[in-house]
Fold this protein.
Amino acid sequence: MLNLLTPEYKTKIRRVYRTRFLTVLLLSVTLTGVVSIVLLIPSFLSALTREQVSEKERNTLEGKLSDKSRPDLNKYIEQVGVRLDVLNEDIPQKPSVLIERIIEEKNNDVHLTSFVYNDVDNIELTISGVADSRDGLVLFKRALEKTELFVSIDLPVSHLAAESDISFTIRGVLKQ
């Protein structure tokens, strides 16, 4: 094959082609970068908006939990502390032990909801709950009588009027 171009002209043409190739390459990289930045703008704005909303919510919550509500919280904590001190006093029968013993005596038909311990005159324990059946409630009362923890146990007859789902309150005077 004939070589019609001179070597100098060939090097000039190679230089021009290389320059064009590098220009196209740089333009395509730049264009890709610009397109990716443009496509990331909505995600960035969304993240920025979420951050601002989260910051506002945090500030709102901090405002609600400011020192204005802390005195109420402190009073509540003190009241709970006093109640816990009552449970830790040296008394003949600790309420926690009594409650554990009563829970052991309970049958599956009885669901206990609250205990009230009162030691003003006599030591009295009030047990509240719901019984699935009248028989289950009567069995629970008899089980409490057998424990010999109580001097007397009072289950009002009105609680035995219903056949099922009976809300009850049993008052018992404890032995000292």
